[in-house]
Specification:
single chain, alpha/beta
């Protein structure tokens, strides 16, 4: 079974240090996977503020963030814009080809990529990424392909857990914390 505490594994910690791009699925990773529809068919999704702040911290530390989701949703576009996420791909049935194209466009190698997903369309990207991540709300047959399964569920802090872990592994944590302790955050 994949690890839930990646910083306890020196080899995985070394791989986390190389990450320059975190790519995430949306439904089931940044949300709890539930879809809500108003009477006028407007789709509503709930996002964690802490997850969002973690992604902003990664961007401040110089990492790139991408969203690759199977659904088309104006809500996702709005959330990505609010977080300053420029790499947003919606309506994607198979995530790996899109991730492969993005990695090439950014001039990265796959060992510099972490990918987090929770379902069948994500499994290729999870397996190919330098660090493949899943969430505890994913089926076990998806989790088996991950290097790390977060302790926090999708939509309930999983992305923040990933962000904090990357910041710690890459040596940014103390500087980030210091910024907030001294009022500049």
């Amino acid at each position: 079974m994949p690890l839930t505490s990646p910083l306890q594994d020196p080899e995985l910690t070394d791989r986390l240090r190389r990450i320059r791009l975190l790519a995430l699925d949306v439904d089931g990773v940044l949300t709890d996977g539930q879809l809500y529809f108003q009477a006028d068919d407007i789709e509503i999704k709930a996002f964690s503020v802490q997850d969002g702040h973690g992604l902003k911290l990664l961007k401040r530390a110089g990492l790139q963030v991408a969203l690759i989701t199977g659904r088309d949703s104006p809500t996702v576009s709005r959330r990505a814009a609010a977080l300053g996420i420029q790499h947003v791909f919606q309506g994607v049935e198979r995530k790996l080809p899109v991730l492969r194209e993005l990695v090439g466009r950014l001039g990265l190698e796959f060992d510099q990529v972490a990918y987090c997903g929770d379902d069948m369309p994500d499994v290729g990207a999870i397996r190919r990424a330098g660090v493949g991540i899943s969430v505890p709300n994913a089926p076990d047959y998806i989790q088996r392909h991950a290097d790390w399964v977060t302790e926090r569920a999708g939509g309930h802090g999983a992305a923040r857990e990933i962000a904090d872990t990357l910041l710690r592994a890459q040596g940014h944590w103390d500087a980030v914390l210091d910024t907030y302790l001294h009022g500049a955050g």
